[in-house]
Amino acid sequence: FMSNAVKFTPQKGIIEVTASMLDDRHVRIAVSDTGCGIPEQDREKIFEKFRQADGSLTRKTPGTGLGLAISRELATLLAGSIGLQSEVDTGSTFWLDIPITLTKETGQNQ
Fold this sequence. Notes:
The longest helix has 11 residues, at 67-77. The protein has helices spanning 2-8, 67-77; strands at 15-23, 26-33, 81-87, 91-99. The relative contact order is 0.22. It is of the alpha+beta class. It has a single domain (2-11, 18-99), classed as Heat Shock Protein 90, CATH 3.30.565.10. It has a four-stranded antiparallel beta sheet, covered by helices on one side. Residues 55-59 have low confidence and may be disordered.
């Protein structure tokens, strides 16, 4: 998420990383930016392998279109999920929700 935020946010834009508890068993890690945003019709395809919102040969940003597909697969392996909220010309927030467990020794989240 972070590399895409850096890639698609203007030089004076803002990128924010947050971590929060959704409940006592799930954590959310989110990356928000003030970048270009993603049109609604492209939001699902950007999670597919080798797909990008701008798939043209003249696109301004480099990339293979694998990062978000790999992120989704890793989230699934962790019994979690990823998602996004985006508005064109305003920015995007990508998040990872994953379960956590308490350790018996300390009672702390792991």
